[in-house]
Amino acid sequence: MQKIISYNVNGIRSAMSKGWIDWIKAVNPDIICLQEIKANPDQIDLKVFDEIGYKHFWFPAQKKGYSGTAIITKTEPDHIEYGCGIAEYDFEGRVIRADFGDVSVMSVYMPSGTTGDIRQNFKYKWLDDFHNYIDELRGTRPNLIIAGDYNICHKPIDIHNPVSNANSSGFLPEERAWMEKFINSGFIDSFRHFNKEPHNYTWWSFRAGSRDKNLGWRIDYQMVSKSLESRLKRAVILPEAKHSDHCPVLIEVDF
Fold it and tell me: What does each C-alpha distance from 115 to 119, 130, 136, 139, 152 come to in angstroms?
């Protein structure tokens, strides 16, 4: 059984300064998919990962202190794929993939459109390009776990104030329609597979005590290929972990 965590750490150095390594030791995941690492490997104390028994693979953005993904794993992967082969996304370090036998685990940091029209249009282009990329990849790697910050709430249950956020990036009709189409193309929203309850979120604004009041958004997912459904055993959100404005999401899957 593999325990896989996905976590947008909003800066790996910041998370490590808040006891993140001790948390990892306690939870003891097999694979960790990180997003928004905001650092190059030479800016991180990598020895701590070696000391606690993890291999680590980093795909930072070219721009310093921005974006970037990583995969940390106890088991040596058969192959690591850095990027998706599309320069404008690989420049921002948005995708890294590790292959383990017939299963591939991806850490993905999807763009946010919250800073205005230019980035929202970049996000729409990414969504189309990423879906095409995944469709093609499934020809050779059909068993995918796509973990990461999707920057989209799929349904009203996934956001604390759906009415007032109807025109907010991350909950726009076009984004939600893309999510529906992506899932329907052959994926399981692993958390919703096990849990249909409201008020389960993975990101909270730093403003106005949003986290204490649980006024959040569920934008972090582990999407699992339908072909792995019988091997999927558990999926939970871990809001008590407070190293970031996001919290980790965890699945257990039988490789």
Answer: 7, 21, 31, 35, 15
- 90: helix, coil or strand? helix
Which of 52, 225, 222 minimizes the C-alpha distance to 137? 225
- For residue 245, indicate whether it is catalytic: no
Residue-wise pLDDT tens digits, 187-218:
999 999 999 999 999 999 999 899 999 999 99
Q: What percent of the chain has pLDDT over 90?
A: 99
Question: Where do the H-state alpha helices sit in 4-103?
Answer: 12-17, 20-27, 47-51, 87-90
Query: d(Cα 104, Cα 146) in Å, to the nearest integer?
Result: 8
Q: Residue 136: CA atoms inside 13 Å, Cβ hemisphere, count?
A: 8
- Please report the pLDDT score of residue 173 as a whole number: 98
- In this predicted model, what pLDDT tens digit does every residue of 31-68 receive, in sequence order? 999 999 999 999 999 999 999 999 999 999 999 999 99
Structure tokens, 198 = 């409201």
Between vectors from CA 246 to CA 21 and to CA 196, what angle results, nearest 5°?
115
Sequence-distant (6+) residues with CB within 8 A of 20 are: 9, 243
Cα 216 from Cα 205, distance rounded (Å) = 7
H-helix or E-strand containing 73?
strand 69-73
Residue from 22, 42, 117, 149 carrying the catalytic annotation? 149
Q: pTM value?
A: 0.98
